[in-house]
Design a protein that fits this description.
This protein is an all-alpha fold. It contains 5 helices and no strands.
């Protein structure tokens, strides 16, 4: 797929919102055992800072995988960057699901907003202080 093709998926925003919100519930359910003491099943507390740091660590691991052009250790048929970004996405969706966030709605609204941002135009991006990277 060419990177220059404009995405037109926003015509079905209800489906995108529902899929992302359902994925957040699935990720939360899959992660539930990590919030429980293994021997007793007692609920463990992990603060927001710890959870955000874990998301950040996955992004850092993705960067290292990309920088070193490494294959993943656990899924050797995949690049490490790809797998670590998937881990970050899982952690993000888990957090959203645990906090009853409408991550799907926020995602669609943010994508729509970004299409209209003045600072995202080619002229602004290439101007002084623009978003060149």
């Amino acid at each position: 797929m060419s990177k220059s093709i404009r995405v037109t998926w926003l015509s079905d925003i209800t489906m995108i919102k529902e899929v992302l919100n359902e994925l957040s519930k699935i990720c939360r359910a899959e992660a539930d055992r990590w919030y429980r003491e293994p021997l007793t099943g007692a609920l463990l507390y992990m603060n927001v800072g710890e959870r955000m740091a874990l998301i950040h660590s996955e992004i850092s691991e993705a960067f290292e995988g990309y920088r070193k052009d490494k294959q993943d250790d656990h899924l050797p048929n995949r690049k490490a960057c790809e797998v670590e970004l998937a881990d970050a996405l899982i952690r993000i969706l888990d957090f959203a699901g645990d906090n009853d966030m409408d991550i799907g709605g926020a995602f669609v609204e943010k994508m729509q907003y970004n299409r209209t941002r003045e600072d995202h135009t080619d002229a602004m991006r290439s101007g002084p202080g623009g978003k060149k990277f």
